[in-house]
């Protein structure tokens, strides 16, 4: 009896502790996100007054690269990736200089037309402030790690106005196929509090309920499954383009700010050739696609190119907003098929690309409900899971740790970081269909077929 009382007392104290700490993190991140988003909004509207504002992209990426290189190298790239790395390798320890550096570098990049997102900086700023909070109050490594994960969740929730999806994203994005259940409560609290704080401070959010009556039919379900396969392929293509341009950047033996000049010049030329539609956040295109408007057929491929150049050549910003653009525009393209609906598939594509590219099918499915209403939820979930499986063992976040293999007929060592998964071995099992396919693939590889 005494042991039970003691156990319940310890659990009660633990719950109270994390409710309090997560609330503090939610307030801190809610305020910091609001400051960042307001500053970004002012910068974008100021730059947009000039018709050819993007001609300053070479200078913007040069300056962004200089600031990151000499003040906080950890702020390089698309934010969330560096936080995942910090959680896995340094128990969430983050250089406090990351916060102002990431804020300034991202505003410079996006305002001048760099194709990047706003969620990565918010997650990294939130995680950086959470790490600083932990250090100020002398918390240990385990508590710091949990607080930093709360910072990721709150950052994601406050930037998109999706508190539940944001909370899940923070615990789902760290491992492919695994959830940190011990951080669920504080992540939810931090996400909800952060969202409420930023809303109270005047941040407005995108919410586009789809006028969709779910009439289930086998024909419609097949369309959803085909869509999931298509979005999975798009996710895979984006990951590979991102990786390829990253390798090109590494092979270019130049001082990193000079790479920013090169990247900015490429983007400015591409904007003149194709359109300025693919610069910046691209929120108008995302909204237009979901409303069922006509979007150029190759829009999703061009956005992949613009984003990959921006993030690999000195630009600073997130990657989820470009993923939304790619998903919505590819869904719009898919919805042009006879008998399909552009609006529905743009919405489903938007979350399915997130599920496939970031390996986060649960948070993507919940986000569909939070952004587009509950009716579309089951169909978005099916498409998201198929997209997640189709991407294979790849990710836009190379520091993610593999917790589950996506097929029993494939052998990949669990606990491996995604960047170290270079090749897979097939695990032939004669009693399964995938096993027999795996056997044939092995024979083809050995030249026997």
Describe the SSE topology.
Elements (H helix, E strand, L loop, with lengths): L1 H46 L9 H15 L8 H11 L7 H14 L7 H18 L4 H20 L2 H10 L2 E2 L7 H17 L17 H34 L4 H18 L9 H8 L8 H14 L7 H15 L7 H17 L2 H12 L4 H14 L10 E2 L7 E2 L13 E2 L6 H13 L4
Parallel strand pairs: 1-2
Antiparallel strand pairs: 3-4
Helix pairs in contact: 1-4, 1-5, 1-6, 1-8, 2-4, 2-10, 3-5, 3-6, 4-5, 5-6, 6-7, 6-8, 7-8, 7-15, 9-12, 9-13, 9-14, 9-16, 10-12, 11-13, 12-13, 13-14, 14-15, 14-16, 15-16
Please, could you describe this protein's structure?
With 449 residues, the protein is mainly alpha-helical. The protein has 3 domains: 2-200, Clc chloride channel, CATH 1.10.3080.10; 218-390, Clc chloride channel (Orthogonal Bundle); 406-445, no CATH class. It is built from 17 helices and 4 strands. The protein has helices at 2-47, 57-71, 80-90, 98-111, 119-136, 141-160, 163-172, 184-200, 218-251, 256-273, 283-290, 299-312, 320-334, 342-358, 361-372, 377-390, 433-445, and strands at 175-176, 401-402, 410-411, 425-426. It is globular, with a radius of gyration of 22 Å.
């Amino acid at each position: 009896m005494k042991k039970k009382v003691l156990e319940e007392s310890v659990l009660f104290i633990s719950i109270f502790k994390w409710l309090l700490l997560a609330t503090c993190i939610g307030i801190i991140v809610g305020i910091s996100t609001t400051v960042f988003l307001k500053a970004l909004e002012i910068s974008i509207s100021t730059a947009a007054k000039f018709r050819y504002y993007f001609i300053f992209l070479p200078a913007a990426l040069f300056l962004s690269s200089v600031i990151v290189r000499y003040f906080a190298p950890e702020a390089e790239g698309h934010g969330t990736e560096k936080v995942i790395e910090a959680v896995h390798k340094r128990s969430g320890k983050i250089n406090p200089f990351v916060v102002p550096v990431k804020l300034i570098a991202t505003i410079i990049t996006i305002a001048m037309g760099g194709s990047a997102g706003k969620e990565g900086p918010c997650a990294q700023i939130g995680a950086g402030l959470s790490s600083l909070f932990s250090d100020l109050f002398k918390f240990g490594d385990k508590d710091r790690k949990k607080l930093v994960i709360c910072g990721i969740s709150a950052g994601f929730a406050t930037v998109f106005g999706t508190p539940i999806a944001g909370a899940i994203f923070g615990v789902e994005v760290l491992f492919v196929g695994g959830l940190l259940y011990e951080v669920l409560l504080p992540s939810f609290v931090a996400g909800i509090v952060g969202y409420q704080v930023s809303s109270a401070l005047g941040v407005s959010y995108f919410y586009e309920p789809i006028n969709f009556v779910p009439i289930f039919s086998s024909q419609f379900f097949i369309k959803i499954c085909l869509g999931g396969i298509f979005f999975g392929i798009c996710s895979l293509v984006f990951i590979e383009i991102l990786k390829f341009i990253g390798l090109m950047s590494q092979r270019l033996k130049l001082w990193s700010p000079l790479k920013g000049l090169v990247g900015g010049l490429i983007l400015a030329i591409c904007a003149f050739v194709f359109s300025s539609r693919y610069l910046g956040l691209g929120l108008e295109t995302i909204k237009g696609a979901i409303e069922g408007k006509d979007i150029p057929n190759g829009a999703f491929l061009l956005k992949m190119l613009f984003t990959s150049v921006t993030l690999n050549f000195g630009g600073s910003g997130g990657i989820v907003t470009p993923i939304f653009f790619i998903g919505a525009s590819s869904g719009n393209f898919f919805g042009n098929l006879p008998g399909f609906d552009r609006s529905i598939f743009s919405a489903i594509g938007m979350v399915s690309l997130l599920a496939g590219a970031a390996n986060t099918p649960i948070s993507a499915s919940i986000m569909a409900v939070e952004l587009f209403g509950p009716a579309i939820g089951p169909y978005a979930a099916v498409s998201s899971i198929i997209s997640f499986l189709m991407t294979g063992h790849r990710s836009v976040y190379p520091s993610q740790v593999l917790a589950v293999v996506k097929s029993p007929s494939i052998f990949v060592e669990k606990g491996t970081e995604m960047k170290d998964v270079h090749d897979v071995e097939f695990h032939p099992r004669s009693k399964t269909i995938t096993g027999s396919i795996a056997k044939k693939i092995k024979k083809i590889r050995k030249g026997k077929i």
